Known about the structure:
Elements: H1 3-20, H2 24-30, H3 38-48, H4 61-80, E1 85-87, E2 98-100, H5 103-120, H6 123-131, H7 133-157, H8 173-179, E3 186-187, E4 190-191, H9 192-219, H10 227-244, H11 246-249, H12 253-256, H13 262-276, H14 278-285, H15 295-324, E5 337-343, E6 349-355, H16 359-362, H17 366-379, H18 392-416, H19 418-426
Antiparallel strand pairs: 1-2, 3-4, 5-6
Helix pairs in contact: 2-14, 4-7, 4-9, 5-9, 5-10, 6-9, 7-13, 9-10, 9-13, 9-14, 10-14, 10-15, 10-17, 15-17, 17-18, 18-19
Amino acid sequence: MEPGWLKTILVVLIMLYSQAIMCLWVVNTELSGSVFSWAALDDAIDCLTFSGRFSITAIPWKVWSYMLWFIAFEMGLLVLIPGPTVQGPPSPVGYRPTYKDNGIACWILTMGAIISWLLVAPQETVVDVFEMIGPLQVALNYFALFVVSLVFLKARLAPDVEPQGRVLQTSFPIIDFYVGQDLHPTLFGIPLKQIINCRIGMMLWGSIVAVCAMYSYRTDEGNGITPATVGGFLLIMYLTKFFWWEGGYFATMDITHDRCGYYLFWGCLSYVPCLYTAPFIYLASNPTDLLGLSQTSMIIAAVVGVTAIYINYDTDMQRSRVRANPTAPVWGKPPTFIKATYKTTDGKTRENLLITCGYYGLARHMNYLFELTATFIWTCPGGLSLGVGPFAYFLFLFVLLVHRERRDDERCLRKYGKAWEEYTALVPYRILPYVY
């Protein structure tokens, strides 16, 4: 069988698996996190066949209206809230997309609106909103498939050739649908990746978690420190860090390398709000402290989680500071780095700094280590004897980051050549110093 057909079969299997993830809401709210029960299997089949509670006709109109109002609200904030303009790294043809860096203001307004509303709303309203998360995730799946289909057809029928560069197309349309074709498409002059990835996907993640935390707080008879509120607090701190640093996100692989297809856009519009929220939905639906952890223990978990989130942020900022100012001290010492040159397809030679000091002198992706640490902590403030369901995101993230590190290593070797070989010799560890 030709490699292209093998890739096509693999892509179809991946998309089928990702659709089945939609039933995690049922697993975590009705089946105590057990993904191996027959009931979970039945729901997975319904999900794959778009039937039962996963059919488009089963979604209440109120859910559609909430979803569309949320998207319109975030689009309005992106356009109306002032912020500096930042440029992303040059594409292979030298094109540099521009973004409005107003993420932290939009995030604060979004969280402030949701939390304030759920604090004063009647408890019945809070319960109603929480119970709408499942149908919302189903609606987001349909919406994501619609958006990806539009982007696919647009790239097929009216591709962006200048200035972003040619679209990527193969002789296998299903692969193009999955991987994506356009690199930097825009909507009314706004980069589509910023809209989909940041202002819908990441904002929805935080908003659903805020609903879970407020539901737990309002229904737990006044006990403010619950597993869901501790986990929700940590996730909101993590996303506050993300939106504070949003300008740096525009230089990551998601933006600079991944094209706009099912993998990226369906992932941000559906997979993130469904899978990434799984531990919080479980903790809100199953408030019993399975290991009898005290509130003091959960506070300690919160402190460890905040520390991991801060170090994750500091690793990203350390690299940004040195690249912006090569004389900026790192841990009180002059920075060390390798100057790596590369060529874009327009023939221009450019330079980048490969940092060999601080966090990046210990491992090439230390930020991944602390991201995994924070994720584990906010997943298990209710105890470790949980089912697989609430740990689905942590397990996925572990595989994702290990795979992303491998992809990044291969890409950088092609891009920088001998400079990358010299860098990996000086910093041999990938994620965990002295281990991996």
